[in-house]
Automatic annotation (TrEMBL):
<comment type="similarity">
    <text>Belongs to the GSP E family.</text>
</comment>
<dbReference type="InterPro" id="IPR050921">
    <property type="entry name" value="T4SS_GSP_E_ATPase"/>
</dbReference>
<dbReference type="Pfam" id="PF00437">
    <property type="entry name" value="T2SSE"/>
</dbReference>
<dbReference type="InterPro" id="IPR001482">
    <property type="entry name" value="T2SS/T4SS_dom"/>
</dbReference>
<dbReference type="InterPro" id="IPR003593">
    <property type="entry name" value="AAA+_ATPase"/>
</dbReference>
<protein>
    <submittedName>
        <fullName>Type 4b pilus Flp biogenesis ATPase TadA</fullName>
    </submittedName>
</protein>
<dbReference type="InterPro" id="IPR027417">
    <property type="entry name" value="P-loop_NTPase"/>
</dbReference>
<feature type="domain" description="AAA+ ATPase">
    <location>
        <begin position="211"/>
        <end position="406"/>
    </location>
</feature>
């Protein structure tokens, strides 16, 4: 047995072929001994840790392996994660500085910190190892993943959102994407401190929420739409009844009167799906003061707009788009696929009368997320128009209030859709 000698903390031992081979052999050895000795550890992690430590020593005696203290501690922790956790991902899931975890096959693991992607110094043994961890994640959800059902979405017990796709659809091995759930939601003060929002923008949005303005937040994937929606919801008066609708529950509203609804995918037999549109329709029967849809992505937007037009002022949602104007185009498309039979002009008028404000948020090259544009919607002479109120200025790196057209580069002239 080759000597393993690394001087590093248990979390920082870099993977190598020797180390991974030893860890794989030890894993099989320990599992066999646990089963033979009938060790029960469901509610006793300490007992399992002691057993793993003893089995590693036993393995070293049998196979004359020599390992140092740091490597011993690392192996002990990794084996514990393999048996009761999520293997190599356990430490990443426990790291509060990490927002996203992206696995592209067994040897390519990426993480996002502060909006910047970096490659993690760890790996899985092989495709089967990745698949085993994925199945452990989705098992409590009653879902399965295999060649006949190669895509799965779900939410972990801690609220983290996962998506997995495996061969034959994923050509380079099983892929897993994890959007981690933050236990303590960001506050408005934290956004101010990081420059994601300015005080005048925050004051404007706070007043808009308090005055029951209908707001749509647009942006790309990972731009911070849900984070901003969470923060804006904090300014809803506590006496109001809010119904939230999400595909995967991420909103962390701290109001006193909140009803949380979550869509349900079809089961393994292909039945039982409950869509966002069905939940929006049901929410209207629940006497809501405001309806908040975590993300509008399909025909449910028609019911959301109708709710906004029929007394449910102060409702909010998010949508994927590249700008405020692109958000309008996205809404048009979604209303079209909902089965609505009206003309394009009628759809635009309905959007304009339902929505009051579009807040566009994005991520800059340095990874910083910030509000890039705030636009008011108006219907003038039967036409839908957008008026920019705030626009991000690349020179000052700040969101500036448009000053009535005095600055030609940031004119607030109405732009017809």
């Amino acid at each position: 047995m080759r000597l393993i000698n690394r001087r590093a903390s248990p979390d920082k031992v870099a993977p190598s072929d020797d180390y991974e081979k030893l860890k794989s052999d030890l894993h099989k050895f320990v599992i066999d001994r646990i089963e033979d000795d009938n060790i029960i550890y469901d509610d006793n992690q300490k007992k399992l840790e002691e057993a793993i430590s003893a089995y590693i020593r036993q393995y070293c005696r049998i196979y004359e392996a020599v390992i140092d203290r740091e490597t011993f501690d690392s192996l002990e922790k990794h084996l514990l994660n393999e048996i009761i956790g999520y293997g190599p991902l356990q430490g990443l899931l426990e790291d509060p500085t990490i927002n996203d975890i992206l696995i592209n096959g067994p040897r390519n693991i990426y993480i996002e910190r502060a909006g910047v992607l970096e490659k993690a110094d760890m790996r899985f043994l092989d495709d089967r190892h990745v698949l085993r961890v994925i199945r452990r994640m989705i098992s409590p959800l009653g879902r399965r993943i295999d060649e006949s059902s190669p895509i799965v979405d779900g939410r972990l017990e801690d609220g983290s959102r996962i998506n997995a796709i495996v061969p034959p659809l994923a050509l380079d091995g099983p892929c897993l994407s994890i959007r981690k759930f933050r236990k303590d939601p960001l506050t408005a003060q934290e956004l101010l401190a990081t420059g994601s929002i300015s005080e005048d923008v925050l004051e404007y949005l706070t007043n808009a929420v308090a005055s029951r303005t209908n707001i749509l937040i647009s942006g790309a994937t990972g731009s911070g739409k849900t984070t901003l929606l969470n923060i804006l919801s904090q300014f809803i008066p506590p006496a109001e009844r809010i119904v939230t609708i999400e595909d995967a529950a991420e909103l962390q509203l701290r109001n006193g009167h909140v009803v949380r609804l979550e869509t349900r995918p079809e089961n393994n037999e292909g039945v039982g799906e409950i869509s966002a549109r069905e939940l929006v329709k049901n929410a209207l029967r629940m006497r809501p003061d405001r309806i908040i849809v975590g993300e509008s992505r399909g025909g449910e937007i028609l019911d959301v707009l109708q709710a906004m037009n029929t007394g449910h002022n102060g409702s909010m949602s998010t949508v994927h788009a590249n700008s405020a104007r692109d958000a309008i185009t996205r809404l048009e498309m979604m209303v079209g696929i909902s089965g609505f039979k009206g003309s394009g002009d009628l759809i635009l008028k309905m959007i304009g009368s339902a929505l009051d404000l579009i807040v566009h948020i994005g991520r800059k090259a340095d990874g910083r997320r910030c509000v890039l544009q705030i636009s008011e919607l108006h219907v003038i002479n039967k036409e839908l128009t957008l008026k920019d109120i705030f626009i991000y200025d690349d020179v000052s790196r700040k969101v500036l209030r448009v000053d009535g057209g005095k600055n030609a580069a940031r004119s607030a002239d109405l732009a017809h859709i």
